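A further point concerns the way the authors explain their paired sequence and structure data. Each protein is reduced to its one-letter sequence and a matching series of backbone shape codes. An entry of this sort, consisting of the sequence and the corresponding backbone structure tokens, reads as follows:
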Amino acid sequence: MLSVILFTVTSFIIGLSGAMAPGPLLTVTVSDSIQGGFRAGPLLVTGHILGEAILVVLIFMGMGYLLSSESASSFIGIAGGSVLVWTGLRGLRSGDQSSGDIPAGGSVLRGAVISFSNPYFFIWWGAVGAALMYSGLELAGAAGLAGFLVGHWSSDLSWYSLVSFLSSRGAFDTSGKVYRAIMVACNGFLIVVGAYFFVNALI
């Protein structure tokens, strides 16, 4: 039992180190939380976790090696990069609109789409995620696997909920220059990252 607890804590720390890295999901969490409030973070992470659950099933079906293959990475880079650029441009065009509630279902779907648009999401799960899954199974069977998933998903939920809370606390004047500057920076970052994924997939 102690070994499962320690493995869960280890999975939490490893997951947190990945969750805290700057990326598209973090950027969208900040911008959506400023517009829609604290709940944006947990909803986006719900979509992210649902996407990861799909990958867990695929890995168990023996398709883990495909997730980190060069051909899959190129396809995801082109398709995902295009989605991120489109998301950023769309955000810039609507940047002057006042904030408001973002539909819960829309945030969940957005979290899944943003995650699937990132090629490194698949690479991490095809390599690191799969290794941790099987380590958990070897350690304690289903309990070990559950420990990994609980630890990993708890790290995602904890970090993005914190980011969402802190971001939403500053969303008082959505018509001010600071708000517009943040939205331009966030959406501009999505465009740059999307373009990088796209170009890198073609090289």
